[in-house]
Amino acid sequence: MTAFLDQIFVRGKQTLLAPMAHAPGWLVQIVSSLINIFALLAVFLTLFALISVLERKILARMQNRYGPNRVGPFGLFQPIADGIKMLIKEDIVPARADKLVHFLAPVLIAAVAILTLGVIPYGRNMTPFAIDGGILFFFAVGSATELAVFMAGWGSNNKFSMLGAMRAIAQMFSYELPLIIAVLPVVMVVGSLMPDRIVAAQAQYTFGLVPRWFVFTPWGAAAFILFFVSGLVESNRTPFDVPEGESEIVAGHMTEYSGFKYATFFMAEYLGMFAISGLGVTLFLGGWHAPAGALEFLPSYVWFFAKLSALLFVYIWVRGTLPRTRIDQIMNLAWKFMLPMAFACVIAAAVWHYAGRGLRGWLWSLVVIAIVYTLLSILLDTRRKFAPRVYRFAE
Amino acid sequence: MNSAAFVVIAIFTLAAALAAATLRKLMHAALSFAVAFVGLASFFFLLGAEFVGLALVFIYIGAVAVLIVFTILLTRRDVGKDRGFNWSGIVIALAMFGALTWSILKTQSLAIVAPHIRALTVKQIGAALMTTYVWPLQCVGLLLTAALIGALVLVMEEKR
What we know:
Mean pLDDT of chain B: 81
Low-confidence stretches of chain A: none
Order of helices and strands of chain B: HHHHHH
CATH topology of the largest domain in chain B: Four Helix Bundle (Hemerythrin (Met), subunit A)
Structural class of chain B: mainly alpha
CATH superfamily of the largest domain in chain B: NADH-ubiquinone/plastoquinone oxidoreductase chain 6, subunit NuoJ
Strand content of chain A: under 5%
Largest sheet of chain A: 2 strands, antiparallel
Strand order of the largest sheet of chain A: 1-2
Shape of chain A: globular
Shape of chain B: globular
Helix content of chain A: 55-70%
Mean pLDDT of chain A: 84
Helix content of chain B: over 70%
Number of strands of chain B: 0
Radius of gyration of chain A: 23 Å
Number of domains of chain B: 2
Distance between the termini of chain B: 67 Å
Low-confidence stretches of chain B: none
CATH architecture of the largest domain in chain B: Up-down Bundle
Strand content of chain B: under 5%
Number of domains of chain A: 1
Oligomer: heterodimer
Number of helices of chain B: 6
């Protein structure tokens, strides 16, 4: 029963493909890919609709208000109303805009977000496109986002759009480095760029209880935090949302977009968030494996989406908690702290490997991380001397 | 299947390259240049050289295309205007084409029949880079670090 439930979607796909047993191989391959793409879009667009209302609900709860509660039970049909509104809104293209580039930017950004979702293993035998260099594919395709953002900013022919695009590209470029270097230790330890192998490497349990996820090693924990923060920046989420700072530059590169094109940008942002969280789950949180051996009776995809939801909740939580940072603070953090720390993770992972991957390696890599962290804190602290704050009061 | 895919990708790549060479607006040309690189990367995928294709996408679309686009944006005032026709471009293109054709005709590796080439995995490339080619790799790394530091020195504020 457990195995059946676990493989129910895989079997469903096989049943769908069964009538084509005599068709030529390339046709089967194309149909199989189309089924994967369809399933991917169905799941993640539903998740997008859900998370858009849940985010507003959770934020409202954190800010002591009700949030959307008019449409349907608990406001759950809000995304449908929003979708209809976005569809029937007028699509305004500025007269001086570059029409083609202006149109292609949301298309490209959504395509990139969907492509990156394709390489993540969602369950046992449930990787839509299992390719050898999956992690590389994720980042290679993801790097086209910057071009799309630039196209949106430049194509709109608006100073706010251009400024927003400049900010977005500056911070995305800076954080791509710590993001990728934080992934390196995992790739080094597993010895493969294939997401399925990375998940398989985290399958065992110590004493049948504590899972061997990489986040439970010192280098893995540090790299996961770096990865998560960089992911926040890459998806332009709240402490790092200067590219679309409403109070300064209207909506950044999305200023001149309206109606469904704006909705596409919004969707792409959320899909990008799902992709980066999904990759985080795959790399550090054991992918679709259960958190304890005794809990493996639940299907693998349930565990994947549970972990994904937990990460998404943290994204929303952070948005409800932290104020927006300035661009110079963002850059300082990236180059002075995150990058050296990411390199320290690589070294700590090597130490962990050569000290035998056991308790000894665990302690030694903790020592490496602690030393680098302390040194960096001291070094960065002495550079920032604040003058004593002077308060002035009305008299 | 493969030859059909080859024809489709070849038409796509050539069209994008032609657009990059002939479009009136410089920014459009730069963007079609990025599209041409997508086509080139697909050729590598078709040949089973996954790593090279991904590296091409990563470097040329993620970095070089953005660099070109920004260079155009920051150095020209008339970004939106038509660009003039440049004869020197034709000379350089012909010279490049001649050199490439000459070297392709001269090379020996084309004599290998296709089925004998095994698909390279990322692991093999990594092993080769870390053993046989470790010195060239280190030299390139040193050169790039020097370039990075040089760029930083160039933009550093002068202290008075």
